[in-house]
Amino acid sequence: MEAATLTDSEFFQFKELIYRIAGISLSPAKKPLVSGRLAKRVKAHQLSSYGDYFRLLGNHPDEMQIAVDLLTTNETYFFREPKHFDFLRDRILPQHLPGRPFRVWSAASSSGQEPYSIAMTLADRLGSQPWEMVASDISTQVLEKARSGHYPLEQAKHIPKNYLSRYCLKGVGSQDGTFMIERGLRSRINFIQVNLNASLPKLGEFDLVFLRNVMIYFDTETKRQVVSRILGLLKPGGYLLIGHSESLNGIVDGLQTVMPAVYRKP
Fold first, then answer.
1. Share of the chain above pLDDT 90, in %
2. Please, what is the average pLDDT of the chain?
3. Are 33 and 126 within one domain?
């Protein structure tokens, strides 16, 4: 069977769908990405067009989740934008009063590299002091990968050497060329599915929220709504960290800018 070609009108259907579900705005430049990521699913269902696949989604919630997973996954790596981890280690954690758990939310955790980077920093700096962490994503597929804590060895290059030896296990035999986050650290992170574009579940209040490199996919109004929901779960005095290529200018009032991409709730 000849491979299907994604037409402009079919692309528009998927663009509208992913905006409605996830608040993500796909520019016309993303048409090859949509075509490439969904091609295997069109083929798997032996369909002759992307339009047929789009119609199939309406009656198959499981397949809809697969399509959402494919269209929302973005690239990430350990200790990305390292200044944020320095700020967490050197500025935020020393201010924390012992006695109550330090609570963090990694709100677009993708395949787990960000929450595990945060967890290594917390475990190292807080020692026996209590801390809790929620890591969420809209994609069930990447959450599955994140829970496993299992990665190709080349991804270890951004992890500080002392963290690598303390919190990571090198694969041997059939697992050669991979490494795994040690079980104790994995068990301390609660990975859950959350759609930031909908009402948030009851997660409690947080001292720190990482909302990095996800707002680049949102239009202004969606950003405003997402940030507003998240600020409702941030404690007074708590910190919100966004990606270095992102800005909250004109999106939200009343947050203090601490340094680029770091904000504090008064």
1. 73
2. 92
3. no
Query: Average pLDDT of 2-27?
Result: 87
Residues with Cβ within 8 Å of residue 28, at least 6 apart in sequence:
11
190 and 139 inside one domain: yes
Q: Which of 37, 89, 147, 229 is catalytic?
A: 37
2 part of a folded domain? no
26, 34 contact by CB (below 8 A): yes
Out of 45, 72, 99, a domain closes at 72
The domain in which residue 66 lies consists of: 8-72
**Set 103, 137, 207, 212: catalytic member:** 137
Task: Please list, in sequence order, all residues whose beta carbon lies within 8 angstroms of the beta carbon of residue 78, skipping any fewer than 6 positions away.
Answer: 113, 116, 117, 155, 156, 158, 159
Is 207 noted as a catalytic residue in this protein?
A: no
Q: The whole model's pTM is what?
A: 0.85
Kindly report the CATH number assigned to the domain that includes residue 94.
Answer: 3.40.50.150
61 and 108 inside one domain? no
Of the listed ranges 56-70, 127-141, 154-168, 221-235, the least confidently predicted one is: 56-70
Instruction: Say whether both 53 and 154 belong to one domain.
Output: no
The pLDDT-based confidence of 201 (bands split at 50, 70, 90) is very high
8 belongs to the catalytic site:
no
